Amino acid sequence: MYCPNCGYEYVEGVTQCADCGAKLQAHPPRTARRTPKEFVEVLSTYNQGDIAFIKSILDNERVEYFFVGENFSQIGQLIQPATLVVRKEHAERVREVLKNLKVTFLGVTG
């Protein structure tokens, strides 16, 4: 099974993408909309409240983003943080928008 958005492959029995929530399909997408080279990491956090707040800000800014591991962090918060990933061309703008927020970031990547 494959995510039509991310292009990630999942084991049999999984029906939904753990990162973006899309319904999986039997065949890989012709071209995944998101590729690692187009996106960069901006920050990481364990806090689901921070994630929701950041999403509302970035939706308002009309920035394409996703949180890698967002759904996994709900299962095992102390194992892996969710990481905000944005298109390279939006990274500096996103860092500028988020720099003064009072949230519990684990780290901001350069």
Structure characteristics:
Alpha-Beta Plaits, 110 residues, 4 strands
List the helices and strands and how they pair.
Blueprint: E1 39-45, H1 48-61, E2 65-68, H2 70-75, E3 82-87, H3 91-98, E4 107-108
Antiparallel strand pairs: 1-3, 1-4, 2-3
Account of the 3D structure:
- By secondary structure, this protein is an alpha+beta fold.
- The chain has two domains: 1-34, no CATH class; 39-108, Alpha-Beta Plaits, CATH 3.30.70.
- The protein has helices spanning 48-61, 70-75, 91-98, and strands at residues 39-45, 65-68, 82-87, 107-108.
- The longest helix is centred in the middle third of the chain and has 14 residues, at 48-61.
- It is globular and about 45 Å long.
- The termini are far apart.
- Mean pLDDT is 78; it is low at 73-77.
Count of beta strands: 4
CATH class of the largest domain: Alpha Beta
Largest sheet, order of strands side by side? 2-3-1-4
- Uncertain stretches of 5 or more adjacent residues: 73-77
Shape: globular
CATH architecture type of the largest domain:
2-Layer Sandwich
**What is the tally of helical segments?**
3
Give the N-terminus to C-terminus distance in angstroms: 34 Å
Give the averaged pLDDT, no decimals: 78
What is the total number of structural domains?
2
Largest sheet: 4 strands, antiparallel
Helical proportion? Answer: 25-40%
- CATH fold field value of the largest domain: Alpha-Beta Plaits
Structural class, by secondary structure, is: alpha+beta
Q: Calculate Rg over CA atoms.
A: 14 Å
Q: Which percent band covers the strand fraction?
A: 15-25%
The topology string of helices and strands comes to EHEHEHE
